[in-house]
Amino acid sequence: MDYGRLLPEIVTLAERAGAVILEHYREGVAVRAKADASPVTVADEAAEAVILAGLAELTPEIPVVAEETVAGGHVPELDEQPFWLVDPLDGTKEFLSRNGEFTVNIALIEGPEPVLGVVLAPALGQVWWGAQGHGAMTRNGGAAHVIAVRRWPAAGGVAVASRSHSDAETEAFLDREGVAERISAGSSLKFCLVAEGKADIYPRFGPTMEWDTAAGHAVLAAAGGRVTTRNGEAFLYRKPGFRNPGFIARGA
Q1: Looking at the chain, which residues constitute the CATH 3.30.540.10 domain(s)?
Q2: C-alpha atoms less than 13 angstroms from C-alpha of 124 in its C-beta half-sphere
Q3: Residue 32 pLDDT exceeds 80
Q4: Is residue 147 a contact partner of residue 157, using CB atoms and an 8 Å limit?
Q5: What pLDDT digit, counting tens, does each position of 102-121 carry?
Q6: How is domain 157-250 classified at the architecture level of CATH?
């Protein structure tokens, strides 16, 4: 598959979905609870509709697993072929709190691995993308530039974590790792901060879904980083139910 051809198309598609989200962000939207009690808004659903239509036009032969469609009970049949993983609005709580730290996530899975990913932060005006063999890049209002992970600083690493998911277990792990500083960020921005070399490690021991992580994972891997399970095994996709175990994302 020609990742180099697909990447700019997927970036543009994410930006189209982001523009729809920003319309609702400015106006304010009602929220309701899904079956799992997580919040969803009309912005999630409108953005997903844009992405699904765009992917159907770009790659009609590739099935799509998208968060809101799956929540509605519609899961495509998957065998061994590639498939798209989509979270149209990752960080609905951040969206509702209006802190800007929400993203559009689109990833391509081949085998058990994310091989291409785009993460857009509409309210921040920044997009990150990457693919196997093509490196990783970001753009924030100007020209795009290459990004890469950094070596662990001699003075101690920087950890990035969610404001709402820090706990004693995570803090104890970071102490053992020799972390000198902790910063907070929402949604898939945590993967992107490690990919840019602005942070060094992102642990998440609580539950996530594959569409939460795949795009950020792909960007980080393309930037030279890695994601493993807590015991150091490969962090894989195409799992039954698309539910993730705990993981650790790292730079170099």
Answers
A1: 3-147
A2: 22
A3: no
A4: no
A5: 999 999 999 999 999 999 99
A6: 3-Layer(aba) Sandwich (3.40)
Tokens 């803090």 belong to which residue? 171
CB atoms inside a 10 Å sphere around CB 8: 11
Question: What residues does CATH 3.40.190.80 cover in the chain?
Answer: 157-250
Strands (E), the chain: 31-33, 39-41, 64-66, 83-90, 103-110, 113-121, 126-131, 135-139, 145-147, 157-161, 179-184, 201-204, 208-209, 226-229, 243-244, 247-250
Q: How far is CA 156 from CA 153, 162, 177, 178, 233, in A?
A: 5, 20, 9, 6, 24
234 DSSP assignment: B
Q: Which of 101, 103, 70 is nearest to 85 (CA)?
A: 70
Domain 3-147 fold: Fructose-1,6-Bisphosphatase; Chain A, domain 1 (3.30.540)
Does this model's pTM top 0.85? My answer is yes
